[in-house]
Write a structure and sequence with these properties.
about 425 residues; alpha+beta; 2 domains; five-stranded mixed beta sheet; 15 strands; about 30% helix
Length: about 425
């Protein structure tokens, strides 16, 4: 094919894919299997056209064109650059082919999850691209090595919950129900007594996508950079922004709603509860530390990934509070190696100092089995580039949308003020 034919064919396939996505979005539905297969076929054809175009541009030592499919050559596919894509959109420039491919894959992943993304850049959780093409003249066969990688740094590596051993489940589709079993009971009987039904009660923990959104401001001077370091810094900032917001929410005081996951700190801030105490920033004692562990043990949850968690102020309090009633033992609640009664204590400043009832707010200290905390993610990252809002300061606003939910796998799933999704596996105090 000539360069013009390749260009025309690429435009035809791209326009078809765009039209199909627009049609399904307008109809408010996900693609059917036939449509998904057609999109995938078009993407593979686009890859072939890119390689064919590259081969047409290759020249041998004699200056004549060389066909990469018939001779031994190595051709690398251009890598996706978030920095370049943001810069192009901010300047009103059309996306390059690689960014368009990434967008198509990201859109498909979101729609398979049951979500219609709205941003200009749709980043999938994983992106598989052809990295190296080698043609063998004698065999007439090309070998394509696929490189499957995350574009943004994996979120789980950024979360304090990964250190605690929480359960992270990406790639969810629609509403997800996780069964919870109360356990089986048995009883002693005489030889002829009828056995009683020992089956425990089954309940379910329902996870539904909730929109998490935030933004970062990037200067246009920074967007002009082309270095690997600048690209990595932008991606890290986005991943960190999502991780911090997710941590702040899960460890926060939010009540259960259709739009926000409930926070573990809700155990402290729920002033209307009838079965949970409202704590008011009290002085933490050794007896209260043991009481937190006993509370979790009473629910048979003292197993798995057990650890404490607090913020830096809480750590300072724990490291300077003596175990003795008269503060005379020289032995503190937290040891120098950040252990509390044999369990590690993790620190994150996503925990704010506003837990409990005002004015005696305090710092959250939570102990629990973090394996019972499940965090679910739907799709990847939906990014909107806003070049106007902060234009007077020479900045571009990057708005990030992602979809998560979080719950304790063994909680009290009743209704009203007594709803506590972290009741059995976690216990809290508010200290100051």
């Amino acid at each position: 094919m000539t360069q013009l034919e390749i260009k025309d064919k690429r435009t035809e396939l791209t326009d078809f894919n765009d039209a199909l996505f627009a049609a399904t979005k307008a109809e408010g539905r996900s693609m059917n299997e036939e449509e998904k297969a057609k999109i995938q076929t078009n993407l593979r054809t686009l890859e072939d056209l890119n390689l064919m175009e590259a081969s047409n541009n290759l020249k041998g030592t004699d200056g004549k064109p060389v066909n990469a499919f018939q001779n031994v050559h190595v051709a690398k596919k251009e890598k996706f650059s978030l920095l370049r894509t943001v810069r192009d959109l901010a300047n009103g420039v059309k996306m390059n082919d690689v960014a368009r491919d990434v967008n198509v894959i990201g859109m498909q992943e979101f729609r398979q999850s049951g979500i219609n993304p709205q941003g200009a850049i749709i980043i999938p959780t994983m992106y598989e691209r052809a990295n190296i093409l080698a043609g063998t003249a004698t065999a007439g066969q090309e070998i394509v090595a696929e490189d499957k990688r995350a574009i943004l740094p994996p979120l789980v590596d950024k979360l304090i919950f990964s250190q605690a051993g929480a359960t992270f489940m990406p790639g969810l589709v629609g509403t997800v129900s996780i069964p919870s079993y109360a356990g089986t009971t048995v009883a002693w009987k005489t030889e002829v007594d009828t056995a009683t039904d020992g089956g425990g009660a089954f309940t379910e923990v329902v996870f539904a996508p909730k929109r998490l959104t935030g933004f970062i401001n990037v200067s246009k001077t920074f967007l002009a950079q082309d270095g690997v370091g600048a690209e990595r810094l932008l991606m890290d900032n986005i991943a960190n922004a999502v991780a911090r917001m997710l941590e702040k929410t899960i460890l926060g005081p939010a009540t259960v709603s259709a739009t926000v996951p409930s926070g573990i700190g809700y155990k402290i801030n729920n002033a209307n509860a009838t079965t949970k105490a409202v704590l008011t920033g009290a002085t933490l004692t050794w007896a209260k530390i043991v009481g937190l562990e006993s509370s979790v043990d009473t629910s048979n949850a003292l197993q798995g990934n057990l650890a404490y968690m607090t913020n830096s102020i809480g750590r300072g309090i724990l490291k300077t509070t003596d175990k003795g009633v008269a503060n005379d033992t020289g032995d503190y609640l937290m040891s120098e190696d950040n252990m509390i009664n044999g369990y590690p204590c993790l620190v994150t400043n996503s925990i704010v100092s506003t837990y409990g009832t005002a004015p005696a707010d305090g710092n959250l200290v939570v102990f629990g089995n973090w394996a019972d905390l499940m965090i679910g993610q739907w799709g990847g990252y939906d990014i909107t580039v806003d070049p106007y809002t902060a234009a007077k300061t020479n900045q571009v606003v990057i708005v990030i949308n992602a979809y998560f939910d979080a719950k304790g796998l063994r909680g009290a799933y009743s209704s009203g003020a007594d709803l506590d999704e972290y009741q059995k596996s976690f216990a809290c105090e508010s200290i100051k």
